[in-house]
Amino acid sequence: MTSQKVVCLGAGIVGGCTQVVFASKCKTHDFYVVDIDEERIKGWNNFKPNYYEPGLNKLLKTCLNKNLFFTTDFENTLKDATLIFLSVGTPTKQRGEMKGIGTNLSYIESCCRMIAKYAKNEKVIVIEKSTVPVGTAQKITNFLQEYNKNETENEKENENETTKENKKKQKQIVVLSNPEFLAEGTAIKNLQHPDRVLIGGPNTEFGKYAQEQLKQLYKGWVPEEKIFFSNTWSTELSKLTSNAMLAQRVSSINSISQICEEIGAEVTQVSKNMGSDPRIGSRFLNASVGFGGSCFEKDILNLIYLCEHYHLYVVAKYWKSVLELNNHQKLRFAKNIADTMFQNLENKKITILGFTFKKNTDDVRGSAAIDVCNYLLGEGAILSIYDPKAKPKHIKLSLKGYNENQLIICDSVSNAVIDSHALVVLTEWDEFTQIDLSKCYQKMIHPSYIFDGRNIINRKSAQKIGFNIYSVGFPKNK
Ligand SMILES: NC(=O)c1ccc[n+]([C@@H]2O[C@H](COP(=O)([O-])OP(=O)(O)OC[C@H]3O[C@@H](n4cnc5c(N)ncnc54)[C@H](O)[C@@H]3O)[C@@H](O)[C@H]2O)c1
Ligand SMILES: O=c1ccn([C@@H]2O[C@H](COP(=O)(O)OP(=O)(O)O[C@H]3O[C@H](CO)[C@@H](O)[C@H](O)[C@H]3O)[C@@H](O)[C@H]2O)c(=O)[nH]1
């Protein structure tokens, strides 16, 4: 017997992965994931989610159509729901006031309208899983309460015995913040073994009841001491600042990588030396071509917006510098390729190894590869791109201003390197650590170069074969 119905609006990476893990862990609940995108829902129902995430398909098989359901039917799904997760996108605004900094809350708003219209339960608990600006829970609460009030007033005008009866059962609504910390490529593992679960909500009687209900969902597999309660604003802010701090670490080590390149130090050694101090810690200290993904930049922009709103301009400037350094890192990496190769890339074939923003995902959103490739295309290079998972249509859509014969999408490293002047590593796929560099060298035009944006190619072996190699944070060609 199942006891409670949980609904999640949004069947993307967060909506899909969280509900698959919930359903596999909580057999006492039924989970319904609703999306406006019919194709996406069809994919889930055919055991074919529209993105790649290690371990997801295997887990999906254990619960789909048992206690996990995917649908586009908002009305029937929401009508008797108590716990409603919001897992829709919250991208950066592309127009109007605060364009390029503020958050586009249109998807959140459309979910609120669906909830207001269709959720008929006396108790409605809305849970923010999406990453939102601080204060969004309050906005949602105001909206839903306002809608509820108007509905009740309309009823009053047509008051009869039945509505009098209904009035006694007025809806109770609360909005909780429960941000998600999964990282793509390790989402299932992160959800099964979270470092912490944050729950924020109001300190009212119903607020406390709602937080307890949400805690019950996690209780089956998350140790109690890892579930933290705080007020809604602290919880919403913690999500933004967690990402900001992680991104700041990457920008910090990338800034150090630039120093290393100039003075002859090696950034991997510096990372190891610094990271062995437990106060600093060793994780997230891998210098790279620059961070990417759909979250870091968006969430820092969100934080900058908040700072500027409260006139904290010096603080805003501090966080802006994390993004500036990241953009500089990508551009510096791309420029070095041109500078090294006779300051001329016109019609030169360059092999791009990896296009996703990190390994073990097919997501190219915000990938550093986009900026690097756009720069190289702008210089007239011909790119032969190989990525084990990125979809060719996503690669093509993310690049701009090239003509058709400048872009070749390949299905293997060995095809991609033919007649190429350089190998450019942009994603740290395990497969690239196993490349037969001698075979590549034979197929390439000489002198041949490697530009390693992830420090995964063995420098000594590459040099022995004859390559000129440039790795992030290593002395130039030594
Ligand atoms: N991707 C991540 O690794 C990650 C991790 C933690 C938090 N987040 C946050 O979670 C949120 C979702 O991110 P994502 O990567 O899963 O996004 P996504 O783009 O993969 O999925 C969003 C889904 O919402 C659907 N949608 C839009 N409007 C809808 C509506 N009115 N009703 C129902 N569905 C609707 C879209 O069709 C899409 O399927 C964002 O706020 C993001 O910042 C993302
Ligand atoms: O030492 C490092 C670590 C990461 N990166 C890059 O940083 C980016 C982000 O990596 P990661 O954080 O692993 O991936 P995301 O899937 O974007 O996950 C982040 O963003 C999510 C969305 O908010 C959060 O839930 C996660 O906790 C947070 O790690 C990628 O381009 C990585 O290649 C580096 O360059 N060097």
UniProtKB/TrEMBL annotation:
Keywords per UniProt: NAD, Oxidoreductase
Reaction it catalyzes: UDP-alpha-D-glucose + 2 NAD(+) + H2O = UDP-alpha-D-glucuronate + 2 NADH + 3 H(+)
Ranges annotated as spanning the membrane: none
Region (Disordered) residue spans: 148-170
Family matches, as SMART domains: UDPG_MGDP_dh_C
Annotated EC: 1.1.1.22
Family: Belongs to the UDP-glucose/GDP-mannose dehydrogenase family.
NCBIfam families per the UniProt record, alphabetical: NDP-sugDHase
Protein name: UDP-glucose 6-dehydrogenase
Originating organism: Anaeramoeba flamelloides
